[in-house]
Design brief:
With 128 residues, the chain is an all-alpha fold. It contains 5 helices and no strands. It is 79% helix and 0% strand. The longest helix has 25 residues, at 3-27. It is globular and about 55 Å long.
């Protein structure tokens, strides 16, 4: 796969990972209300709650598709570039998606962290 194609897939992975995080948190709302006696019954009840909840399962499956794409892309991508690129962009996408959904993203400190992350990512890419 060409470098441009790898970069596009890694950006897609970042979007899938980053955008699904806030939706997973939203979809898991109510999980703490699931109460059963015994560790095994509690575990099974939580799995059932999440597995039958489309608001959780759709983002979860999209997130896992991103993981599969990442795994397949690592066969031909440079690891030292792929990991920081995906993680940095996923963080930014998570912050933006969370903000759109009305989550508290931490104000100016989060924006400063996002800018520093972009600067670091730019330096990594430029150095390669």
């Amino acid at each position: 796969m060409a470098a441009a194609g790898q970069a596009a897939v890694l950006v897609l992975v970042s979007v899938l990972w980053g955008s699904t995080g806030p939706f997973l948190r939203t979809g898991a709302a109510g999980l703490l209300d699931v109460q059963r006696r015994g560790l095994l019954r509690q575990l099974l009840a939580e799995i059932r709650f999440l597995g039958c909840n489309y608001k959780y399962m759709v983002p979860f499956l999209l997130n896992q598709c991103g993981s599969l794409l990442f795994y397949l892309t690592l066969a031909s991508a440079e690891l030292s570039l792929a990991v920081p690129l995906c993680n940095s962009l996923a963080l930014i996408v998570t912050l933006v998606t969370g903000r759109i959904l009305g989550e508290d993203i931490g104000g100016k400190r989060a924006v400063a962290g996002m800018l520093l992350t972009l600067l670091g990512l730019t330096l990594c890419v430029a150095g390669s």
